[in-house]
Amino acid sequence: MLKPLRSGWLGFQRHFHVCPICCILPPHITESIARHGNERQRDWAFQTLITSEQFRGRRQAVGTLTFAVPAGEKRRTVFNARNEFDLPGTLVRGEGDPATGDAAVDEAYDGAGATYDLYAEVFERNSIDDRGLRLDSTVHYGVDYANAFWDGSQMVYGDGDGELFERFTRAIDVIGHELTHGVIQYEANLIYYGEPGALNESFADVFGSLVKQRSLNQTAEEADWIIGAGLFTPNVQGVGIRSMKEPGTAYNDPVLGQDPQPGHVDDLYRGTADNGGVHINSGIPNRAFYLAAVAIGGYAWEKAGRIWYITLRDRLRSRANFRRAATATITVAGELYGADSPEQQAVRTAWEQVGVLRSVSR
Fold first, then answer.
1. Among 178, 187, 195, 343, which one carries the catalytic annotation?
2. Which fold has domain 194-353?
3. Is 181 a known active-site residue?
4. Is 15 one of the annotated active-site residues of the chain?
């Protein structure tokens, strides 16, 4: 397991009980690049960590602004930071405007739309806050900024460095993941530390993956269950930043390090890095969702996704742990599809297979 640096520029690990900004790229990847990359890669890795930390401080100081529009209306706005750090930047595309030809702008616009449509058409949710929140995005943030994040009111995307990472709008599940942090913020508001924080990251992965699967019209069996496929350049030995199907196998690279995610509670990370392992231990509930979705079959957003969405919306509170999430999803599955239904059995068995619940004969 990668140990966090404790001195110098990287010695600013802090514990956040909220999610001031929720980044898609785990800190252990950026720290590994800062150790093992070439000079240019080390420079941007340091800058990415510093920029994220400064933004966290700014968010805590000024709070969150939101912009609501009439109920039921999709409203996307994309801004261009022009490789600077001022947000939101220059408005370059609004709702209904034609494509710009700038790939990052158009991917951010389309990805926000696909995420909005999943929540609206499948779960009858009116945008991120369920009250018509405008979907604001800023692209071309910073220079070589290798991350994407939800800052509490909008999306922000870096262009990557071109050597290890492509632009962060390339992966539609990254867009869905980060916007789902907004949904979590308005619903369970899971604290960003330990098991609640790992659930926060896992729910974001679940619905980010469902955005991708729905956009590709893939069943649970057909999906790759990789988060961030397409983010790595050919220089990286890996397929994405996480695998929901097989946690711990997404990458093994001399510069990025080895994927540290466990897929079973026996291998739970118990250290303090990564806010108590929020990006690491999310592999356990991620695999539970994958197992449940494949066992249920069909399109994962139809049944497994509905179970997880209702659980997030109605049953979990800020300090929920893995066991609470497991029992809540089992209960919701029974309420939706019947006690001891195949759907409920699939959910129960999935949590047993990852060790959150003990297997009992039924």
1. 178
2. Neutral Protease; domain 2 (1.10.390)
3. no
4. no
